[in-house]
Amino acid sequence: MVLREEDVRGLLSMGAAVGVMREAFAARAAGELLAPPRFRVESPQGGMVFTAGAVTGERPLLGFRVYDTFPRGPDGEQEQVVVVYDAAEGRLQGLILGRILGAMRTGAIGGVAIDTLARRETAVLALIGAGYQAWTQVQAAATVRDFAEIVIFNRTKARAEAFCAAVRADLGLPCRVAETAEEAVRAADVLICATKSKEPVLESDWVRPGTHVTTIGPQTVEGHELPLELVDKAQVIATDSLAQTQAFEAPFFVPEERLVPLDQIMSGAQAGRTTEEQITLFCSVGLAGTEVLLGSYVLDQAAAQ
Question: Concatenated DSSP letters for the chain?
Fold first, then answer.
């Protein structure tokens, strides 16, 4: 079976994606999700990046996602393929073409992190960045919390305004464009940074006590979208993949001893938020194997139809 982006959009809701990611983290905590760091194959013209993983248990799965790194414009679309095998039978379950599955996977992981780490009472979701990844982050955040308002800041105001219009139309939520990053950050109960900036896009003093922050942009000592002072202020810092934070070419921007696996917080093996005033931080780096689980779910939905 081969599915394309339009098929995935019709078969997969964000609520379902968040549910599958919860299952993935439960499997990870139980030792049933194998998630090595991604690896690259480079050529002089460009390269390919593989994230491979396996699921053991009652229904074993095996597979990978691969995407290219060929130079493109700022909005150039990477070619992506997700391949899913039924590991019990050694049978190819199917292929999923396009980038929507990977983006929904990343957004859903962010939603699980918000549900695990953010305060239960959260009124304002703020975003810095209004790109493709930011959209699935908003979808997932709105799935796990009832926000009274969404606030967007982007360096290109017209892009932020278009993003806000989509939030109102598709999610039915009040949304406004902030004039500055500071305005957005100071309003936030939950803050999502989804930029490509290798320099901090905010100041730590702008972040109020009790805020949950998610970063999905650059996160190494050579370039990071969050200030190191915010790392110092955060009482709980979680990530989806410790193995991936250790595998980057440059050291990760958070000291290893401060990072807690999200699955360990979800299972109760390690503490997460313990007070309303704590600042929590989630570093989204990509947990391998999650695309396999989500891809298998979508292929099952297609087969059922």
Answer: -EE-HHHHHHH--HHHHHHHHHHHHHHHHTT-EE-PPPEEEE-SS-EEEEEEEEE-SSS-EEEEEEEE-----TTPPPPEEEEEEETTTTEEEEEEESSHHHHHHHHHHHHHHHHHHS-S---EEEEE--SHHHHHHHHHHHHHS--SEEEEE-SSHHHHHHHHHHIIIII---EEE-SSHHHHHHH-SEEEE----SS-SS-GGGSPTT-EEEE-S-EETTEESS-HHHHHH-SEEEES-HHHHHHSSSPBSS-GGGEEEHHHHHHTSS----STT--EEEE----TTHHHHHHHHHHHHHHH-
90 with 187, same domain: the answer is: no
Nearest to 144 by CA among 174, 110, 104, 192: 110
Do 129 and 77 share a structural domain?
Answer: no
Report the percentage of the chain scoring pLDDT > 70: 98
* Residues in a beta bridge with 97: 81
Rounded Cα gap, residues 64 and 84, in angstroms: 7
- When divided into structural domains, the chain yields a total of 2
Q: pTM for the full model?
A: 0.96
Find the mean pLDDT for residues 276-296: 97
Given a contact cutoff of 8 angstroms between Cβ atoms, the answer to whether 128 and 193 are in contact is: yes
Provide the domain limits for residue 300.
2-101+289-304
The answer to whether residue 106 is domain-embedded is no
Q: Are both 163 and 232 inside the same structural domain?
A: yes
- Chain segment 7-49, per-residue pLDDT in tens: 999 999 999 999 999 999 999 999 999 999 999 999 998 899 9
Buried b (16+ CB within 10 A) or exposed e, 11-39: bbebebbbbbbbbbbebbbeebbbbbbbe
Residue 117 sits in the same domain as residue 200: yes
Q: 263 and 131, same structural domain? A: yes
